[in-house]
Structure formats: structure tokens, C-alpha cells
Amino acid sequence: MTFEQLAAACFLLIALLGPFSGAPARRVAVVSLTAFGLAASVAALTRLLTVDARAWIGHVYLAAGYWLPAFLVTRSPGAFDAWLWKTEPEAARRLRVRGHLAELAYLCCYPLVPAAFITVYANGSIADVDRFWTSVLGAGFLCYTSLPWLVSLPPRILESGADPAGPRRQTVVRRINLRVLDRFSHGWNTFPSGHVAIAVAAALSVMSVTPYVGIVFLTVATGIVVGSVSGRYHYTIDAVAGIVVGVAAYVGASFST
Prior knowledge:
The chain starts with a helix and ends with a helix. The chain has one domain (77-256): Vanadium-containing Chloroperoxidase, domain 1 (Up-down Bundle). It is mostly helical. The protein has helices spanning 2-17, 25-48, 51-55, 58-70, 79-87, 90-93, 100-107, 109-123, 126-144, 155-158, 172-184, 194-209, 211-230, 236-256. The longest helix has 24 residues, at 25-48. α7 packs parallel to α11 (172-184) and α7 (100-107) crosses α13.
């Protein structure tokens, strides 16, 4: 399937680009060998598993594409981080509203992909599932693979001491979001926003299979866009670029599968 070819190509690309990341040789070797192993595993699984079984492994490919580039990050935030801050609208910098709905929507970026996959799997064909994963993986990989070179921190880290409300005024959902990020993310800012790009690509893929349910997913994806900026999880330009990548990945998947 197309998404498997895309995943294998992405892992090979990470392996080949590793030596140019500036990371220590031992770390590069581990990441590159892991990436080569993943690419080989993708090829092997196409022969060992049924098409239906392989469709579920897209979740693993997405997680691997998220983590592997992060292990190659050794540079400190510098010019790119400063550029992101410079491009941030003043209104966004001063934004201190942590709305319940926006925070809840952003929290939905984690279950959104499995839920969207199940929806497409249950209502569409294997070809639809292939287009779904090609779209979602394409969006995610485009955002993740540049991480070792475009190094930056989320704006909430830079602004952690600027919020007069402080942690005492944080909503319960925001505290959950921050705890999830602290425990299950690599802590770097992805440009474009991977959460936004993947959410948009997944929502559009669902809409192509079942439009009414797709509207629900697209509404949640819109909330993720808003929450990513209002919660200072991403810069405004991260979110806007994420929308562009998500739409482009969906359109590209529609033509390639």
C-alpha cells in the first residue's frame, strides 16, 4: 500500500540524514540502524500480514516518525527560535486566556487519529484506509523530519514566567495537557505543528468517507488549531503552516492512491 511505501521512504530518509544532524556518532548510529530496521520491517510485514492487519500498524509508523528525529536534536535553540518569536503577533504573545473548550480540543489531538482511523476503517474500503494513512503519515513526517535542523522550544516555555495568573489559575484540562506533554512528548517545538497538520489531514480523510462525521472531526481539528495557539503550545505560524501541510498531504494522498 502507498502509506507503507511512504513510511519506509521516511525511515530511510531519517537514516541517511542522521550523519548531517550534528548529533554524536554513537547516537547517529543507533538512530540510523533503528530507522533502517524499521524500513526493513515495513517491507517484511507486507509479506507476513494480511492487508487488514497491516492497516492498524500505521499508528506505530506515526509514533516512530515522531520520536526518531527528536533523538538527533543536539543544537540549542538559536536563530530559528528567535525568528519564530519575532513573527509571533503581539496579540498572541499577550494571550492569557486558557479556555476550557480550546484546551479540551487540544487534548483531543491524541485520540483523534485512532478515532479517525476506526471511522474510516469501519465505513470505507481498504483504498480509503490507504489514503487515510498516506495523508496522516505524510502530514506528520513533513513536520517531524526537519526537527534536528529547525530547533525551537514551545512558546509556553519561553512565557512560563509571564502569565500573571500562574499555575494556580490553570484549568484542570490544561494541567492534564501539560502533564501529558511533560511525560509523553520530546519537548521540542515542531514546525509546522504536527498536531495541527495531522488533525487536519485526518479530519479531511474522514470527511471524504462519511461527510457528516467528518464535519465533527473537522470541528475538533479547528479547536486543536485554536488551542495550539491560545494555550501557547505552538506559535501562530506553526499552526497556520500546519493547516497548509495537512491540506497538502490530504490532496497529495488523494492523487497518489
